[in-house]
Design goal:
Oligomer: heterodimer
Number of strands of chain B: 8
Number of domains of chain B: 2
Strand content of chain A: 15-25%
CATH architecture of the largest domain in chain B: 3-Layer(aba) Sandwich
Shape of chain A: globular
Order of helices and strands of chain B: HHEHEEHEHEHEHHEHEHHH
Radius of gyration of chain A: 14 Å
CATH class of chain A: Alpha Beta
Largest sheet of chain B: 7 strands, parallel
Number of helices of chain A: 5
Radius of gyration of chain B: 20 Å
CATH class of the largest domain in chain B: Alpha Beta
Strand content of chain B: 5-15%
Largest sheet of chain A: 5 strands, parallel
CATH architecture of chain A: 3-Layer(aba) Sandwich
Helix content of chain B: 40-55%
Shape of chain B: globular
Chain lengths: 137, 305
Amino acid sequence: MSTLKGKRILIAKPGLDGHDIGAKIIALALRDAGAEVIYTGLRKTPGFIARVAVDEDVDAVGLSLLSGSHKELVAETMQELRSLDASDIPVFVGGTIPAEDRAALTEAGVIGIFTAEMRLDDVVAEVARVLVPVRAA
Amino acid sequence: MAVAAAASKADGQLDRRALGRALSRIANTSVEEALDGMRETAGGASRIGITGPPGAGKSTLIGRLARQRLDSGAAVAVVAIDPTSPHTHGAILGDRIRMDGVADDPRLFIRSLASRGANDGLADNIADVLATLDGYPFDEVILETVGVGQAEYAVRALVDTLVLVLIPESGDQVQAMKAGTLEMADIYVVNKADLPGAERIASEIRAVARLRRRLTSDWEPPVIMTAADRPDDIAALHDAISRHLAFARASRNIDEVRRLRREYHVKSLLMRTVTDILAENPRAVDCSPREAFELVVARLRERRR
């Protein structure tokens, strides 16, 4: 419980697809795990998303992508983050990501890829693994 | 205006990365660190507080208002607070999404905050967050409180101009709010004024405003009817805010303003400490109230050693 307390996470929807139920479910799951979640709303540009990530100084960005343009949009968002001196902010990706594209996204620096088959608890645990340093026993 | 050396890049652009990080550091500051680093909290950017009950349309209104103020040449920052769940400590910071139209405007700096332990409509460390913004080149800071009720008017001490946003459905609340939040505002807005009942609530508020002027001040708070998609209404609010900021600058006693802000700051740090002590000693309240009180006072003393 409250494993993500005090963590600020941006959930963003780049590109043109109009479905954000998945993004909202993830936002609520992260909130219920104690995170402070900012959601951008639909159809935002990579430049906008990177600027919000910087202004809000989030601990992670989650990109929700259902449009099939994930490779381009993820690359552009990471490029925009770099240009704002914010390449250290971890980026997660969720949505419809075919298995054959995952290696390339990981290669590009994406920290985790979440798909609809995953249990919410596992998504939260994976985010926590990256964001919350394990305390020495 | 005071501008911190680190605030701007060499080309004079706002260093948003540095500002974003500075605000996180401040928001996460412990009470002890806050006491050591307590800053002066008056004399920087003009501060406009926007408060009102949940669902009154504060965020949407701020979006329109911020655009108008940016277009008039002011450098504007928005700080928007949403409530933290006392159970999970999580929060959805959703104000930004309602500031549609202006949220995409790169001139505007918006920071969303969770209220965390504060239950006065503001957020932990808000005094220091605002003081930090004073070190950056903003002319104005618009502060949006959590949706409030009759008595959460702590924001009064921290801002120069306080706008209370009500809606026609707030009709019965006006009677109830005559004491408290309603007495604190410099400008009243009846938002969603295209809905039935708007004129009735506006006249009730006008009666309160006239009474206030007789009792306390040279400023008679205007009552402005707005609908977010009527540009003239937003312009009227914009003008009223500019008028009140000028009035406040000319008439206020800066030492008194500083004193009230320090008082709020110290009180909020004390409240946080007491809340922490009670959380760490959950059995404390099992004994008599007097014993529980003595325990908290003793723990407070230990902390300051």
